[in-house]
Design a protein that fits this description.
- The complex is a heterodimer of chains A (about 260) and B (about 300).
- With about 260 residues, chain A is mainly α.
- In chain A, about 80% of the residues lie in helices and about 0% in strands.
- Chain A contains 14 helices and no strands.
- In chain B, helix 3 packs across helix 4 and helix 8 crosses helix 11.
- In chain B, a hairpin with a 2-residue loop joins strand 1 and strand 2.
- A six-stranded mixed beta sheet of chain B has the order 6-7-8-3-9-10, with helices on both faces. A four-stranded antiparallel beta sheet of chain B has the order 2-1-4-5, covered by helices on one side.
- The chains are: A mainly alpha (about 260), B alpha/beta (about 300).
Chain lengths: ~260, ~300
């Protein structure tokens, strides 16, 4: 069995006994899936006049709403605001897992015996990163899948399902999501090397969601709308950010650095 | 390096910035030896062990372990050595069995369940294998950490403070287990502040404070520092007996301490019979004869004090 997988399994066996981690991995995805579905269900067949007005005033929605009823247009406008929430999951979950996993190793002083084995630094780092990224992506993709299924039943017209599964959403969920997860893990590793409390590590690492929150708020207030171009630019920007973060995280995750400087 | 040498260092050094933690350490440890590294806190013992276990890189000198060079064959060295770190470093939320299973997989052990069972049984932890390590006592955790260091059957075992903070019973069990490991022919390097333990377990000890101060067997270190001293417990000791003994050509020193004659010699094994004859012929009433044995602690303190004076 690959040592990376050995590390992943050990991480899961340990961190999932922590209720904070369980909350992040189970409750948050459920919440983020239930919220838009709940709103769709509560809207029923009615259209909110204010929402229709706001949506039709935006170029993107003017185009999207072509051929849709006012009710369908307002329903899609509302649920599309939640796309950003599906991008927060792959960021928050790995940050939580990595913070507990790495700071936990520091406090229990388990890193030295691990580093004394023939495992390579890259295997250990990859195992820790994947232990955070896999549940995050699993939870995100499952949530998105449930959201799609819910949309099939709750959308006022079948066209809305197609809009929720359009390329922009797919790129965001399946390309941008993993890149954000990687950024979150790298940041958590860097922060964890400097602090000794998993909650502090988690809180500091979670600051990485601020740009996403900004987008969420901006979109909610109708300042701008996320479209495919914006998502592609985000993909490129996060890819570059990932490269930089991986470099610094790898520097901080050297055996000697961990043993002699991680306090 | 000879065929039987398991660990060899030449001017091995490690500096952390301006702090010279280990300074030109040269030593050779043969296979199967139990070797003690003694020194005060901050002397560089743990740093030395970490270098020899290929955990951190030296900043100077060379070293080899099991014929493999530090800095070149580090992964191979890690496969050949086991290490008991200063803190047991176990996963509290995992069971004893899971802890060992994880490390056995990292050490690429072929029969993981078999090895885990073997060492859990050997150290008396088999019945509690399913319990979380967080519920274990300090002694049990230390035993588990020793089991972890042995899972891959290393040729060399580094033990950093193996009985530190343990109660006498747990310490005794650990010491007895170390004794068993010695009979298996493994090379053991023990860092300890427990000089009594080092005296009992180690074939040779290195007294060390960044630099090597002394290196020899505890018996030889005693002899070099204090000579060998024989105590004659007398019924009626007289000062004339001291004068008589001082005239014997091989007696280095003799003194009367309470009711005992304390005589410093090179080789009591061959010289004692002659001294006994001299005393008896001078009407000395010998009750019994023994050797005044300095503790390793006295040897250690003397050596460290001398080094500080220099």
């Amino acid at each position: 069995m690959s040592k990376i997988w050995v590390v992943v399994r050990k991480e899961w066996a340990e961190v999932f006994k922590n209720r904070f981690v369980l909350f992040a991995v189970i409750f948050m995805p459920l919440l983020f899936t239930a919220m838009p579905l709940g709103i769709m269900a509560s809207m029923g067949g009615s259209a909110d006049a204010e929402v229709v007005e706001m949506a039709s005033g935006m170029e993107e929605y003017g185009m999207l709403c072509e051929g849709l009823t006012a009710t369908a247009c307002s329903q899609y406008f509302i649920i599309s605001q939640f796309l950003i929430l599906f991008l927060m999951l792959p960021l928050i979950i790995p940050v939580t897992i990595a913070a507990y996993s790495i700071v936990g190793e520091k406090t229990t002083r388990t890193l030295e015996p691990v580093l004394a084995t023939p495992i390579t630094t890259i295997e250990l780092l990859s195992g820790k990163a994947l232990a955070g990224i896999i549940p995050a992506l699993g939870a995100t993709w499952l949530s998105y899948g449930l959201f799609l299924v819910g949309t099939v039943f709750l959308a006022v017209t079948p066209e809305i399902v197609g809009l929720v599964a359009q390329l922009m959403w797919l790129v965001a969920i399946f390309v941008l999501g993993p890149l954000l997860s990687l950024a979150g893990v790298c940041l958590a590793i860097m922060v964890s090397s400097r602090v000794n409390d998993p909650r502090v590590a988690e809180q500091l690492s979670s600051l990485v969601i601020i740009p996403l929150l900004g987008i969420f708020m901006g979109q909610s207030f109708g300042l701008f709308q996320v479209n495919l171009n914006v998502v592609i630019w985000m993909v490129l920007a996060v890819a570059v950010l990932d490269a930089v973060l991986i470099y610094f995280a790898a520097q901080l995750f050297q055996r000697e650095t961990i043993l002699t400087r991680w306090k | 390096m000879t065929e039987k040498t398991m660990i060899s260092t030449t001017n091995l050094s490690k500096a952390f910035g301006d702090n010279q933690a280990v300074d030109r350490l040269s030593l050779s440890i043969p296979a199967g030896e139990v070797f003690g590294l003694l020194g005060p806190n901050g002397a560089g013992k743990t740093t030395t062990i970490r270098m020899l276990a290929a955990l951190i890189a030296p900043t100077g000198g060379t070293a080899s372990v099991a014929g493999l060079k530090i800095g070149e064959d580090d992964r191979q060295i890690r496969k050949q050595v086991g290490i008991l770190t200063e803190s047991p470093g176990l996963y509290d939320r995992l069971s004893a069995e899971r802890n060992l299973g994880f490390f056995a997989a990292l050490y690429e052990v072929e029969d993981i369940p078999g090895q885990v069972e073997r060492y859990l049984r050997m150290l008396g932890l088999w019945e509690r294998r399913h319990e979380e390590v967080g519920t274990f006592s300090k002694g049990m955790r230390q035993k588990l950490a020793i089991a972890r260091a042995l899972l891959h059957e290393p040729k060399v075992l580094f033990l950093d403070e193996p009985t530190s903070g343990l109660d006498p019973e747990a310490s005794r069990v650990i010491r007895s287990f170390i004794g068993e490991l010695r009979h298996e022919g493994r090379t053991l390097v023990i860092c300890t502040h427990n000089l009594n333990e080092a005296d009992r377990l180690c074939d040779r000890v290195a007294v060390f404070k960044s630099r090597l101060i002394a290196l020899d067997s505890p018996t030889n270190l005693r002899r070099q520092l204090f000579g060998r001293r024989v105590v004659f417990h007398m019924t009626d000791p007289k000062p004339e007996l001291v004068a008589l003994l001082k005239q014997v050509e091989f007696v280095q020193d003799a003194e009367l301490v309470e009711e005992k004659l304390v005589v410093t010699l090179d080789d009591p094994d061959t010289q004692n019979p002659r001294l006994i004859r001299e005393l008896v012929s001078a009407n000395g009433q010998i009750r019994f004869v023994g050797e005044l044995r300095h503790s390793l602690e006295e040897v250690y303190l003397q050596l460290v004090r001398k080094q500080e004076e220099n």
